[in-house]
């Protein structure tokens, strides 16, 4: 009798567990359907709204966004603080560099942003380790100017390589801007660290905002294009903006020393689009101590290390991660010096971070 009671209880509990799992699956499927319906509805509403502006060009470019308002540059040379319509908030979202359509507000000087054009490119960074999609900080950018210093703060090739991978993932042209050369004589060992990047054909411009060295070359490289300045705090982005004559350039911060490390104090709290006197635009972004890579699959990382390409076809496995696999030609090339060991070490660290 006891065995029958036990079996009956187990059957009841098993039935309830199965019912609970079925209910949970049903709730999850219902939530997913609602999400898919919402996405489809927003896509439809976005398309209908953009159809109203077919055949017309956006009349403004967003310079800076503050919640429900955005500083916007117009063809007449004026910069106006525009309100974002609720539909723009819901359907598009706005960031620095966006091309937008506006309409008249209460007066001729008041404008309301009513739609945003499709973006050519998006620059994103992670807000934290749990952020898997990234936060858009700039749009329609052509060039990523990666700013590094040799001494203050010391050049970290790992951070540089992350920015290079990021520029490759986003489809931006990389430009390496070396700052504070007045603090780094030619015999400084930091100069040798740049050799692998020269070999890759990455443009390198050595500058000093203090002495003016290299500034004319930098101005020529930025002219006529939209450039995002990327780099850790303290490397001199704000000083470069000031030396370039950018109106509204952020204040230059001080260096701080904590726990034996030299770092910069954040002086830019939000991204801004600044116009160059010679033409072109520069995005000054908030300083970040770590760059998060988004939209990058583990198997695709090696693509963004172009020096691997001549060696990877000889690897034993087609899906070789170039780490611990047998007969890996990329690893062999790094050990023999045909690939920079420093760059290869950066690749391994990035590979590990993507796995995490």
Architecture blueprint of SSEs:
Elements: H1 2-51, E1 60-66, E2 69-74, E3 79-84, H2 86-91, E4 99-104, E5 111-116, E6 122-125, E7 135-139, E8 143-149, H3 157-170, E9 173-179, H4 190-193, H5 195-199, E10 204-206, H6 215-222, E11 226-230, H7 237-243, E12 255-258, E13 261-264, E14 272-275, E15 281-284, H8 329-336, H9 341-355
Parallel strand pairs: 3-5, 8-9, 8-11, 9-10, 11-15
Antiparallel strand pairs: 1-2, 1-4, 2-3, 4-5, 6-7, 12-13, 14-15
Helix pairs in contact: 3-9
Quick recap of the structure?
The protein has 3 domains: 33-118, OB fold (Dihydrolipoamide Acetyltransferase, E2P), CATH 2.40.50; 122-284, 3-Layer(aba) Sandwich (Rossmann fold), CATH 3.40.50.300; 298-355, Ribonucleotide Reductase Protein R1, domain 1, CATH 1.10.40.50. The chain has helices spanning 2-51, 86-91, 157-170, 190-193, 195-199, 215-222, 237-243, 329-336, 341-355; strands at 60-66, 69-74, 79-84, 99-104, 111-116, 122-125, 135-139, 143-149, 173-179, 204-206, 226-230, 255-258, 261-264, 272-275, 281-284. The protein is an alpha/beta fold.
């Amino acid at each position: 009798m006891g065995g029958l009671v036990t079996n009956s209880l187990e059957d009841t509990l098993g039935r309830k567990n199965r019912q609970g799992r079925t209910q949970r699956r049903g709730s999850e499927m219902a939530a997913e359907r609602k999400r898919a319906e919402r996405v489809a509805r927003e896509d439809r509403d976005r398309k209908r709204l953009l159809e109203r502006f077919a055949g017309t060009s956006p009349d403004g470019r967003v310079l800076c966004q503050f919640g429900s308002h955005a500083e916007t540059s117009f063809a007449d040379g004026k910069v106006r603080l525009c309100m974002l319509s609720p539909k723009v908030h819901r359907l598009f979202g706005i960031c620095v560099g966006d091309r937008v359509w506006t309409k008249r507000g209460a007066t001729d000087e008041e404008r309301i942003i009513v739609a945003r054009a499709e973006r050519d490119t998006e620059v994103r960074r992670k807000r934290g380790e749990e952020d898997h999609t990234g936060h858009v900080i700039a749009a329609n950018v052509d060039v990523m100017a990666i700013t590094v210093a040799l001494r203050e703060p010391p050049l970290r090739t790992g951070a540089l390589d992350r920015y290079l991978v990021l520029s490759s993932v986003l489809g931006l042209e990389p430009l390496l801007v070396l700052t504070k050369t007045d603090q780094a004589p030619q015999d400084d060992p930091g100069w040798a660290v740049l050799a692998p990047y020269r070999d890759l054909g990455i443009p390198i411009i050595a500058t000093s905002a203090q002495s003016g060295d290299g500034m004319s070359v930098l101005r020529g490289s930025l002219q006529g294009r939209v450039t995002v300045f990327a780099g850790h705090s303290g490397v001199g982005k704000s000083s470069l903006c000031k030396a370039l004559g950018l109106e509204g350039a952020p204040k230059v911060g001080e260096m701080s020393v904590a726990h034996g490390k030299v770092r910069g104090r954040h002086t830019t709290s939000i991204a801004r689009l600044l116009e160059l006197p010679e033409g072109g635009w520069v995005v000054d972004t908030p300083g970040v101590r770590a760059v998060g890579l988004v939209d990058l699959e583990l198997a695709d990382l090696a693509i963004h290390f172009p020096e691997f390409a001549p060696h990877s076809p000889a690897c034993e496995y087609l899906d070789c991660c170039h780490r611990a696999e047998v007969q890996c030609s990329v690893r062999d090339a790094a050990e023999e010096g045909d690939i920079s060991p420093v760059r290869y070490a950066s690749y391994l660290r990035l590979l590990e971070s993507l796995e995490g």
